[in-house]
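[SOLVED] Need 3D model of a two-part complex

Original post:
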Amino acid sequence: MRISLEEAGRRLLQAHKILITAHVHPDGDAIGASLGLMHYLRGQGKETCLFIDDDIPETFSLLPGAAAIQRPDGRDSGADLLVVLDSGIDRIGTVQACAPEAAVLNIDHHVSSEDGAGYLYLDAARAATAEIIYELLVLLHADFTLAIAMPLYTGIATDTGFFRYSNTTPYTMRAGAALIAAGVQPNIISEAMEAKPYALVKGMAAAMQTIEVTPDGRVAGLFLDQELVATLDSTEGFIDFVRVIEGVDVAVLIKCIGENICRVSMRSKGTDVSAVAMRYGGGGHVRAAGCTLPLPLAEARRTILSALAEVMGEPV
Amino acid sequence: MRISLEEAGRRLLQAHKILITAHVHPDGDAIGASLGLMHYLRGQGKETCLFIDDDIPETFSLLPGAAAIQRPDGRDSGADLLVVLDSGIDRIGTVQACAPEAAVLNIDHHVSSEDGAGYLYLDAARAATAEIIYELLVLLHADFTLAIAMPLYTGIATDTGFFRYSNTTPYTMRAGAALIAAGVQPNIISEAMEAKPYALVKGMAAAMQTIEVTPDGRVAGLFLDQELVATLDSTEGFIDFVRVIEGVDVAVLIKCIGENICRVSMRSKGTDVSAVAMRYGGGGHVRAAGCTLPLPLAEARRTILSALAEVMGEPV
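Solution:
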């Protein structure tokens, strides 16, 4: 059942024991929204736990309360309200088993969250679930302590690429202003979020050796062979190295993840890259799409570059 | 003479012909503050020119009015007011010769701007001169057209690293909110500011091959030999690749810029790197310093790493 933000606030304040959760593979918004709400509810005297069915990346250890996040243990926590943040109830792992008697309150900014068994407050116009929690706490006349403000700021900042993405609204900026006024130091949060393991930076350096730009300058790519991919824990953010090259419309990252298996990611500033992805059984959006090709790296590279040339037509 | 922001506004509105300028090597704030003020004054019916004694980086060509920025031509523009933004009058090249009869109004956020021949409004608590111009235009009840808002937003965003640096205040964020409400698209500005020439990205890739981290993990460096440096137009931002490595306190960039001449840049999160820089005749601040060593690259590297080890003491 869809409810208003006021109603969501009432349900929180009426509950006795609250279990908060968010999606597996938790990101800054899942963790930030959850911790911010947890600190507020504890301040209101509510017994509140935070369970996430996954590891919490070390990056977030600077957030107050990060150490209090628990893995679900399968036992009934006795909660009468399960709050699901930044996620539908289908992406919280085994947490629901810890609150078998609880009503479900789902707060999210992803349109994918559906009106399910419980109560749903969804606002897809908000850049982050942490931004919705900020709005909720303003409505509840919360005192924004640093313990509340830091996680909420982190959630908003990470979901908007530090206020650079198109989802950043005037409201997003004003929320940021209020949270900085509450004591958040933007440089401390941004330095913590940008920190990368040495191994990842070395992997980036190796990946950058493979940069190639097509003669017309409109497509740029990174092409990672199986040997290099084997040394990398993650290639998150690698595509940005070529995406930022002047004049480049389509950025491509091709990773050889097995014998004759190549994973292709594409980002564009205009060209419909989902058209190329779909041709090879993949999918995505106009500006971000991907597919998997049963080909060795060199052939996958040729295949994607010629499909892109076709879709993009003659250089203007 | 120091004046108030109100007084600065009165002087602008009393002038008949206005020449705006900013420092040489203009950055986003110099250009953004200047263009924003130019559009406002033109909207008030003031004859207004904008002279900068340098090339305007292509990056800023998306800003409305960027094409109207002129190089000083040595002739008297007939201006009765010369507005010097984001700079003292000593850093505007030959522009003053184009306004020999004009009163000088200096608006800046750098403490280095001194109370000189003209009127000075200085607010070092503002993150950007564009933020001061925003404040001024609010005071003057300006209608924030997109032509005014885009350059001001760009000035604020570039001087704060897109709202990530420690100079970002609640006021900075609220100014950003108002400018986005006026129609600025943060993603358009950030994509334009992040765009890099292919040659620079290739140079980054080559530089990243030289990454080294000391065994204790507290110092990381890039060491660029003369051959590599010769291929690079700029090494701006390169030090960030090592600065973001987890656990690194001091990031070092050493460039061999001639036979036995090495330029050293250091950034730290705590260690006083100016102590090391000063030992070799350089200078700077606690967290950002540099010096030049009359040594080949390998010796410069050894010298700086051992000086840092000394200053930093034993690993904790």
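Edit: Chain B has two domains: 5-194, 198-312.
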